[in-house]
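Entry 14. Ran structure prediction on the chain below.
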Amino acid sequence: MQDIINIEDVNKTYKGGFQALKNIDLTIKKGEIFALLGPNGAGKTTLISTICGIVNPSSGSIRVNGFDIERDYRQTRSLIGLVPQELTTDAFESVFNTVSFSRGLFGKPANAAYIEQVLKSLSLWDKKDEPIMNLSGGMKRRVLIAKALSHEPEILFLDEPTAGVDVELRKDMWGLVHHLRQEGTTIILTTHYIEEAEQMADRVGVISQGEIILVEEKDELMAKMGQKQLVIHLAEPLEAIPYTFDEFDLSLEEDGANLVYSYDARGNRTGITRLLKRLSEHNITFKDLDTKQSSLEEIFVELVKQPS
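Output, structure tokens:
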């Protein structure tokens, strides 16, 4: 697979002396989904901002599709779409006009049909004439994705795309990511949710204290994680777990409000899909779900101990 991003010995030190990035060497392959994992403050956003030309590196070089990010800024920036963490949008403008304007910023000619396609893929078409200030937080995040896709980039950066979003939007976003990948878009995803990397990534990089400490195929990394727990936040508390769920390793927490499923991430099948289907069959609904396991900091310590 051809390389599309090449990062060589990149460092970033801020004026106060804080070194946010330390000797970063990383290659991203064209058409892959690459997940960059790390706790808050690990350097994920700084690294993305540096690749996108928002933050200048103190040393080292970055090439995007063969172009240098500093010398060939216009070419590299036109290849990249960025969805930031912050919900920054043009509050008073309509969804359609905001996304169309973003396309024009990159010198692309107006293309109403393409903007319509993007908005429909994000379930935003019925909101096209709404002022953005009237949208929910989840819808605003969809608009940010639409803006990032407006100029038809070859590379899409998603910086913590599902932080604070509901289950429905998270599933929609996973589906969109896989659709874009099928169309040849290279996707770099930053997250502190191991579950997202497991769902979406081809390869995973782990960053801690500004250093890339590991880059591996997703399956190999997940094998190192061992047992995990899926925490299902129930809509209504359970007094007891029905006997028909005996095949699953389940327990109740928080006075029955949370159903916890323990499983081995190294297995070929986690059983999560089967469990969720069984819950639906028994009319047991849930508000949200997430993964519970050792903190990323603890996982990083274990990964660092692995022989290189």
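The chain has a mean pLDDT of 86. Will compare against last week's run tomorrow.
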